[in-house]
Amino acid sequence: MPNLKKRVSFFESEEGLATKRILERIETDTLYNTASSYSANTITYSDNLIPFVDKHMNYLNSHPNVNLDQYLANLRLITKIR
User: Fold this and answer.
1) How far apart are CA 62 and CA 47, in angstroms?
2) Rounded to 5 degrees, what are φ and ψ at 38?
3) What is the pLDDT of residues 1-49, one digit of tens each?
4) What is the pLDDT of residues 43-74, one digit of tens each?
């Protein structure tokens, strides 16, 4: 009989918690444009705005093969205010 292991949620993993701290630092830094964006999910986000950290954590949770270092580096480049 095979043993099925439940995959640890990205949100609860050590890697996920570290990534969340990095995203929160980026969000509070005035050098980056981290405005909330539109979300059709009115149940979770009653004002239809998904916060920067939630948006990227949800993406990383649903795409487990993404290279986190590369993703965060690209995110910094994209959101940097010039």
Assistant:
1) 23
2) -65, 140
3) 555 555 678 888 999 999 999 999 999 999 999 999 999 988 998 999 9
4) 998 999 999 999 999 999 999 999 999 999 99
d(CA 68, CA 19): 8
Q: Which two tokens stand for residue 73?
A: 């580096």
Helix, strand or coil for residue 70? helix
DSSP, res 44: T
* Residue-level pLDDT at 63: 93
Q: Quick check: 71 and 60 in contact, CB under 8 A?
A: yes
Q: Where are the beta strands (DSSP E) in 19-73?
A: 37-38, 49-50
Contact (CB, 8 A) for 39 and 49: yes
Give me the residue spans of the domains in the chain. Answer: 14-79
